[in-house]
Amino acid sequence: PLWERLIALEIGKAISEAELATFTRELADLLKAGFPLDQALQTIKEIGRREQAKAVLDSVLKDLRGGRSFSESLGVFPTLFPGFYVSLIRAGEEAGRLEDALDRLAQMLTQARMVKEKVRSALVYPAFLGAMIAATLILVLTVVIPQFEPFFEDMGTELPASTRVVLGFGHVVGDYWWLLLGLIAGLTWLLRRAYAKPAVKLRVHRRLLKTRLLLDLPMKSQVSNFCRVLGLLLESSVSVPQAFASAQATLKNEALAKAVGEAAVQVAQGGGIAGALERSGLFPVLALRLIHLGEQGGNLPIMLARIAETYDRQVQVAIERLLAILVPVVTIVMGMVVAGFIAAILSGLMSVTQF
To answer: Could you report the per-residue pLDDT of 14-42, keeping only the tens digit for each?
Structure first.
């Protein structure tokens, strides 16, 4: 029934990418060990799964025993099993090599998750550093600086402009913090609302691809994901139009997704993949040249996998370089701000002492 599918769809949203990768690897291993598909799924369900995952597996098992194929059963959960995942499962079923399709999927999901984890781990220190610096600034403005204000008032002397500015800033942060939080929340809401508009999101994503401030990270990570999925689909004998559609769905950048959609139309009309992607002006030259070589040599899936590996390495190098620049810059800037506050207070103390 429709309502059961809707409930299952909501349950599927609660399952993480890590759980999907683990599920895929376990299922591939069980099938290779000789387990029938339904018994393998039942076994996976029984080994310490969360309730959300068990509900998903229950639905899949029910559909399998009702005569549906495995790919059709997974298609009920589009938020959990994306298009490329279902397409590869379908190709594996048609070829009678479901365990091989699952093995490829497990390798791809694990690789993609490792790259994401490296990015997140690399960002932990800058985020912690930023939080500590922000906390220090708030402490200085709301606790340390106000301690000097009674002394300045008792002396009754005119303070330097820098001292007055710092004291005033401390008053604003200490007395009107709720207003500042409201302004930040309101600005965030307005930006999110503007970003939700397709035209605005497209312009932002296009600009992100071309900015050099982030060392081409958005472009390289997106192209890596796209090429990895497209190569795996083509290697599994998925048709080019379907492979393009499934690989396009993995792109989070709207500008690249639009470019791939336009390229898919040209490819369907008989054009080459490299030429179709090149017309967008968004794909990097290296990727286009390797795709062109793959088309000429008849080894496009291998070239696409090589592109993904190349850009994965470049993403890691770019992250290391970005952190090497970002951490000292943030530290120096915030240190200068704190030093400026301290200098303003010392300037006030010196003017009172001289008086």
So the answer is: 567 788 888 899 999 999 998 999 899 88
pLDDT per position as a tens digit, 176-187: 888 888 999 999
Sequential DSSP letters for 118-149:
HHHHHHHHHHHHHHHHHHHHHHIIIIIGGGGH
Residues 272/228, Cβ–Cβ less than 8 Å: no
Whether 355 shows a pLDDT value over 60: the answer reads no
Nearest to 69 by CA among 92, 46, 44, 90: 90
pLDDT digits (tens, 9 = 90+) for 231-251: 988 888 888 888 888 888 888
- DSSP code of residue 160: P
Angstrom distance (rounded) from CA 47 to CA 244: 36
CA 209 to CA 203: how far, in whole Å?
A: 10
Residue 296 has pLDDT above 80, yes or no: yes
Residue 292: both structure tokens together: 């062109």
Element (H, E) at 32: helix 17-32
Rounded Cα–Cα distance for residues 40 and 18 (Å) = 19
Separation between Cα atoms, residue 342 and residue 289, nearest integer Å: 56
Q: Tell me how far apart the alpha carbons of residues 120 and 217 are, in angstroms, rounded to a whole number.
A: 13
